[in-house]
Amino acid sequence: MITGVSIFIAEALVMLFLSLLPELPPLIEAIVDSVSLSLFVFPVLYFFLFRPMLRQINIQMKTEEELKRSKSELETKISELVFAQKTLHESEGQYKLLFDQNPNPMWIFDLETLNFLLVNDAAIKHYGYSREEFLSMTLKDIRPEEDIPLLLDSLSKAPINDYLNNFRGTWRHIKKGGMIIFVDIIADVLEFKGRKAAIVVVKDVTNRKQAEEELQKTKSELEVLVAERTRELQTANIELLVRTEVLEQRNREINLLSEMNSLHQVCNTTEEAYTVMAKYLEQLFPEDCGELLILNTITNMLEPAIFWGNIDKVCNTVSVKDCWALRRGQMHIYTRDGIDLKCKHSNSIGEINICLPMIAQGEALGIIHLMVPSAVSDDVLANKKQLALSLAEQISLSLSNIRLRETLRTMSIRDSLTGLYNRLYMEEFFKQEIHRAYRKGTSIGVIIIDIDHFKRVNDTLGHDAGDMLLAKIGKFLHRSIRESDIVCRFGGEEFVIIMPEATVEVAAGRAQELRKSFKLSNLDYESLLPVGEITISLGVSAFPRNGLTAEAIFKAADDALYEAKDSGRDRVCVAKVRENNPAVNSGSSI
């Protein structure tokens, strides 16, 4: 378009220029006309002939270039297609090799319908279904009915990310014939024949699962067995601890009983024995309370001797008839739920009362009354009963032995009729006092007492009356002496009073007081009226005034007594100092 316009403009300019020129020669004019004609014809030829031809040539050239480029691209695409077909063929071969010849069952199923789309030979062989049967079934047909909800739930989540993660794992499948097997599944989503599907690789792990279940069963059984053994061991350990504690308690009780028995062996009096018992009874029964009641054979009453624990320490005597244990001669137990009767001497409420008689060599000595809280177990109560029995036996024997020793000691040093010390004890005591007085430089007063006309009492009233009179005089003298003095029955109707650290004057004054008090005392004179008034005569001597030996001093007092009797009886005479007394003659300060 631009070229044509340019030609027309140039042609107009030429025509304008020629018109301005003067007339030219014919030749030149002819040339000019020729040129003008050429200038007019050329645009016509250009527009109607050359331009279309040039345009067609350009189009043809462009087409040829496009064809060449398209041919090159087609050849490249054909090469790529050929390569892709070759690769696809190779991939299909490998896939077919991996799928069909895989030893593990494999299949492809439709994610929407769950229909099997393709199965390999291993699946057909392992599950027992034919290929046609497989392809006519769905995934639900090889699953137990109770597992289908979980299967559908797992598959419903798969299309979210094209990944069957929830579908993987261990599942139960049903083989042809109904046999249930356990399988591990690996699955992935793919496109198969234009449908969204999943490829599944299956591995039968039934044997492993059975082995695991067997192992789990064995483990569970072993755990149960271990738990049972552990419980048994714990129970045995607890029992062992309990037995150990019981044995330790028994050993402690035995040691305490042994210690108490050892101390009882060296006790001289029952009071000392009671002190020992009180100490050990509190240790043997620390959680209980109780009392030890001793039988008074004279009043036939039980008198409290020991208390321990939280008990009302009211020293009330108890009648023998109030205790069932002592009446029956065996242990008596009272509980609120029991049928045994409650002893009248027991005031405890809500406690178990155990009464045990103390009997030794057929003689009843008393009872042990034990009060145990009612909340104790049967085993603890049985142990307490056994301990109480052992304790009662030991205390019975200990008290019996101590009483026997007291009796023997009393018989050896006391007069059985008057209860006063006998002559043997007096002589031993006097010898000791002489040594003590000699060291300290003190004096010892001695009084010998004789009942006047005692033979007349025996002859008139009999020996029983005489013995009664002697017993009464013995009690009178025992009441009349100082705590530091001792009074003894010297023999027959004679009595001796030894007064440590008393001079002869003090002893003589005391003798006069005794003589007067005796006359004023009430000695049941009505029974003695047939023999008249009973009086006493007294002789007094002293150490070292009348001698340095017991024999010398007793001889001096005895001489003074005879002097009193010869002088008319009912009087006191003091022994004279012997001229040959070494202590006096030497001017001793004693």
Question: Would you mind describing this structure in some detail?
Answer:
By secondary structure, this protein is of the alpha+beta class. 54% of the residues lie in helices and 19% in strands. The chain has 16 helices and 16 strands. α6 runs antiparallel to α7. The longest helix has 75 residues. It is rod-shaped, with a radius of gyration of 72 Å.
Poorly predicted regions are: 584-590
Separate helix tally: 16
Strand content: 15-25%
Rg to the nearest angstrom? 72 Å
Mean of all residue-level pLDDT scores: 80
- The neighbouring-strand order within the major sheet is 8-7-6-11-10-9
Going by helix content, strand content and strand pairing, the class is alpha+beta
- Helix percent band: 40-55%
Global shape: rod-shaped
Q: State the distance separating the first and last CA atoms.
A: 187 Å
Total DSSP E strands = 16
Report the biggest beta sheet as strand number plus sense, adding barrel if it closes.
Answer: 6 strands, antiparallel
Please give a handful of descriptors for the protein shown.
rod-shaped, 590 residues, 16 strands, disordered C terminus, 16 helices, alpha+beta, 6-stranded antiparallel beta sheet
SSE map:
Blueprint: H1 2-20, H2 26-100, E1 106-110, E2 116-119, H3 121-127, H4 131-135, H5 148-156, E3 169-174, E4 180-192, E5 195-204, H6 206-265, H7 270-284, E6 289-296, E7 301-308, E8 318-319, H8 324-328, E9 332-334, E10 351-360, E11 363-373, H9 378-413, H10 423-440, E12 444-451, H11 454-461, H12 463-480, E13 486-491, E14 494-500, H13 504-520, H14 525-528, E15 536-543, H15 550-566, E16 572-574, H16 582-585
Parallel strand pairs: 15-16
Antiparallel strand pairs: 1-2, 1-5, 3-4, 4-5, 6-7, 6-11, 7-8, 9-10, 10-11, 12-14, 12-15, 13-14
Helix pairs in contact: 1-2, 6-7, 6-9, 7-9, 11-12
